[in-house]
Amino acid sequence: MTYDLWYWDGIPGRGEFVRLALEAGGIAYRERAREPGADGATLAADMAARREYPPFAPPYLVAGKMTLAQTANILLFLGEKHGLAPKSVEGRLWVNQLQLTIADMVAEAHDTHHPISSSDYYEDQKAEAARRARSFREERMPKFLGYFERVLEGQQAWLAGGERWTYADLSLFQLVDGLLYAFPKRMATLAASYPKVMALHARVAALPELQPYFQSGRRLPYGDGIFRRYRELDAA
């Protein structure tokens, strides 16, 4: 089966967490909103036309007659269907729990530059963003990264143990990668405190399964999505 992945073109966003799983798993898919002639209106029309199990927002994955939305939900499905998560129920739920925790931090990273309203410009909420970003840098980043560091203690290489990555490892890579882009000064200070997290980021970056994707030019650059670089929001 070839899946249809729908997400806004031009930004990695939450769609990138799904792309990494599809690419690393060697799973056939089509990026529908990036096809020739498609645009945001194409995506919106497709989403509005889905009457059974309608998605609230992209990303969503079309698998035959099923439409699956919410990043963690999509990855839960792919993990079980394509062996990107442990075989046991306990293991799959543990990886899903890790994914949901990653999603929490992703949301907080987004809110550093849009703490009041996603529909307003950053320039209209700069004072609030500065305050939110300071709290994120000083309190939330160490708390989340410290949690993942503890999870990795005693493990050979991956979050769920074992010899092979899961989709949660790919997602933690994407989270750390986004933080390195958006908060380079802060991450330079914090990196030494979380060596296992940083080592996992390097391991995923070097996965042979992902090299064709990384070298293809299809991996979208950071910019106006979740992870944004504003110098005034970053500090060591």
TrEMBL record:
Protein name: Glutathione S-transferase
Source species, domain of life: Bacteria
Species this chain originates from: Achromobacter pulmonis
GST C-terminal domain residues: 88-233
GO molecular function: glutathione transferase activity
Domain GST N-terminal stretches: 1-86
BP term (GO), one: glutathione metabolic process
Assigned keywords, A-Z: Transferase
